């Protein structure tokens, strides 16, 4: 029995190492000109493109919005540059559904920056990303990379690993979304959005 457990452990580790050793090819998911490749919300006033930058800006009613990819993904990596521009920025990357995301900016519930941390509906923030205060560049461009393999999530901020978490409530396949949180006044920018299949 003990030998079987050890063999299972070694096999899982071998598979995991193989997945991470094979760097996926990242393809541009944002052309810098328009919202082609994304599902534009009806009566869109929140998402705009200018000079190669995707901008998320709160509307007058603070309704919020999610910009979803028009493709669905199973295991993937997404990488994007981002910048917190104005107001209390509360955004994030939704992972295949609107119940699990990687937070970016100020958490509405905790009232502090939780960039890189997973927010899971029903569990809130089960873990917190590490050393973000030292890594994040305020009012400047930063780069976040998120890997999602089933319910296993990894996050890098400016090329530094900040978070690992395994969710037991993940959705197997779905689109990737960028969030503009409701009930806040904010502007955030994204550029160089790339996605690769694992």
UniProtKB/TrEMBL annotation:
Domain of life: Bacteria
Listed Pfam families: 3keto-disac_hyd
Gene Ontology MF: a single term: hydrolase activity
Keywords, ordered alphabetically: Signal
Signal peptide per UniProt: 1-21
Chain ranges of the 3-keto-alpha-glucoside-1,2-lyase/3-keto-2-hydroxy-glucal hydratase domain: 27-195
Name of the protein this chain belongs to: 3-keto-alpha-glucoside-1,2-lyase/3-keto-2-hydroxy-glucal hydratase domain-containing protein
Biological source species: Arenibacter palladensis
């Amino acid at each position: 029995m003990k030998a079987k457990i050890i063999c299972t452990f070694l096999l899982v580790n071998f598979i995991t190492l193989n997945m991470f050793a094979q760097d996926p090819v990242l393809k541009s998911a944002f052309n810098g000109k328009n919202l082609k490749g994304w599902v534009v919300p009806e009566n869109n006033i929140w998402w705009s493109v200018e000079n190669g930058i995707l901008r998320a800006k709160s509307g007058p009613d603070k309704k919020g919005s999610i910009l979803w990819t028009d493709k669905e993904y199973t295991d993937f990596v997404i990488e994007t540059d981002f910048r917190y521009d104005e107001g209390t920025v509360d955004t994030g990357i939704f992972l295949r559904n609107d119940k699990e995301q990687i937070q970016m900016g100020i958490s509405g519930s905790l009232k502090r920056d939780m960039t890189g941390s997973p927010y899971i509906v029903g569990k809130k923030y089960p873990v917190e990303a590490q050393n973000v205060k030292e890594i994040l560049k305020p009012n400047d461009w930063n780069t976040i990379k998120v890997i999602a393999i089933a319910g296993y999530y990894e996050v890098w901020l400016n090329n530094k690993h900040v978070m690992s978490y395994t969710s037991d409530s993940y959705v197997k396949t779905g689109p990737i979304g960028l969030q503009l949180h409701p009930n806040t006044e904010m502007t955030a920018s994204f550029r160089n959005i790339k996605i690769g299949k694992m």
